[in-house]
Automatic annotation (TrEMBL):
Key word rRNA processing present: no
Gene3D superfamilies: 3.30.1180.10, 3.40.50.10170
Keyword list, A-Z: Lipid-binding
Domain of life, source organism: Bacteria
GO molecular function: lipid binding
NCBIfam families: DegV
InterPro entries per record: DegV, DegV_C, DegV_domain_contain
Protein source organism: Flexilinea flocculi
Name used for this protein in its record: EDD domain protein, DegV family
Transferase recorded as keyword: no
Coiled-coil residues: none
Length: 286
């Protein structure tokens, strides 16, 4: 079985190594230049460029044609395809994938809505790929993905609101008030709708990070956690978050990765986030 996903899924190179994962490209336009996929613009390069310009980036999701090309190539191998995607509540990518599959009737494609993004999506992609490599049935893989989707949490915060305002994620008035009052949101993705939701609001960036830790403590308690910090370009946020999580919870930390430009384009380089879930969900898949 082959796994197809999109650029919303954050995984380090070591997490992807040896796995049959195929990425449909995200296109980013910044300062008049368009980049296609990670090969042309890595996450690190994207945030560096973003921090050096006043321009706002534009993103365009993978097209139906992009997916059709991937499915056609994989169908030639005669293998089943599991297509695992960024939340349909945040992007039209899953719909594009379905349209693309309809263009390749010989491809046997099953679709999965992760209802999330970033490393939370990446973990589902990685789990599916490892399980497929182990020979799990499609039904068993989907059962495990359901558990991961239901129990893994992603929370994000940021220092500045201007990218959220520009991208229409918050109204200009609300964003201006938040900026003036120094309010920092803790953003998550609602499991039911797959849309962005505000988990908390507080003043100062460090308090927002502390709130992420508090919310994780309330949710997971003494469980052994798998965690992964994602960021734009915010080393102080990473270190503070890791320190506070280590003080309060029993954590296994995956390698920190740049958050997907699909999200970062709307939040800016100050974004800092945490993906977390029970380690027991992955005991036989890592």
């Amino acid at each position: 079985m082959q796994i197809v996903t999109d650029s919303g899924a954050d995984l380090s190179e070591s997490q992807r190594k040896g796995l049959a994962i195929h990425y449909a490209p995200l296109r980013i336009t910044l300062s008049g230049k368009t980049y296609e996929g990670e090969n042309e613009l890595s996450g690190e390069e994207f945030y560096k460029l973003l921090s050096e310009t006043e321009d706002y980036p534009m993103t365009s999701q993978a097209s139906a044609g992009d997916f059709a090309k991937i499915y056609q190539n994989l169908a030639k191998k005669g293998e089943k395809i599991l297509s695992v995607h960024i939340s349909s509540g945040l992007s039209g990518t899953l719909n594009s994938a379905k349209v693309g599959a309809a263009m390749v009737p010989e491809a046997d494609v099953t679709f999965w809505d992760t209802k999330t993004l970033s490393a939370a999506q990446g973990w589902q992609v990685q789990a599916a790929a490892i399980a497929a490599k182990k020979g799990w049935s499609l039904e068993r893989i989907l059962e495990r993905l359901t558990l991961i989707r239901d129990q893994v949490t992603g929370m994000f915060t940021l220092k500045e609101m201007r990218y959220l305002i520009h991208g229409g994620r918050v109204s200009h008035l609300k964003g201006l008030m938040a900026s003036v009052l120094n309010i920092k949101p803790v953003i998550t993705v609602d499991i039911a709708s797959g849309k962005y939701a505000t988990a908390a609001q507080t003043v100062t960036f460090k308090r927002a990070i502390a709130q992420i830790v508090e919310l994780n403590t309330e949710k997971y308690g003494s469980q052994k956690l798998r965690t992964q910090i994602v960021q734009g370009l915010c080393p102080d946020g990473i270190e503070f978050l890791k320190q506070k999580m280590s003080e309060r919870l029993d954590c296994f930390f995956e390698e920190t990765v740049p958050v997907a430009p699909a999200l970062g384009a709307h939040t800016g380089p100050s974004l800092t986030g945490l993906i977390s879930g029970p380690m027991s969900l992955f005991a036989d898949l890592l």
